[in-house]
Amino acid sequence: MFGIGMPELLVILVIILIIFGAGKLPEIGGAIGKGIKNFKKANRETEDIDVTPDSKKIEPK
């Protein structure tokens, strides 16, 4: 898949460790996990938005 092997993944991991530090990696992983979870949840939900027009007119004051 994309020609990425184990050596390339290790280099990417080392670069990420240098940029963010070991303390931030769990926070980043958790944020990515929550984002994916919310994305999947939003895709599964049906649209509950009612777009039918109201028969009442709102008059400006």
Short description:
The protein has helices spanning 6-20, 25-44.
**General form:** elongated
Mean of residue pLDDT values = 81
In percent, how much strand structure appears in the residues? under 5%
Distance between the termini: 63 Å
What's the alpha carbon Rg, rounded to whole Å?
23 Å
Instruction: Count all strands and give the number.
Output: 0
Pattern of helices and strands? HH
Give me the secondary-structure category. Answer: mainly alpha
In this structure, how is the largest beta sheet organized? Answer: none
The level of helicity is 55-70%
Count of alpha/pi helices: 2
Q: Which residues sit in consecutive blocks of at least 5 with pLDDT less than 50?
A: none
3D architecture notes:
The protein is an all-alpha fold. Helix content is 57%, strand content 0%. The chain has 2 helices and no strands. The termini are far apart. The mean pLDDT is 81.
Please tag this protein with its features.
mainly alpha, 0% strand, 61 residues, elongated
Give the topology, please.
Elements lengths: L5 H15 L4 H20 L17
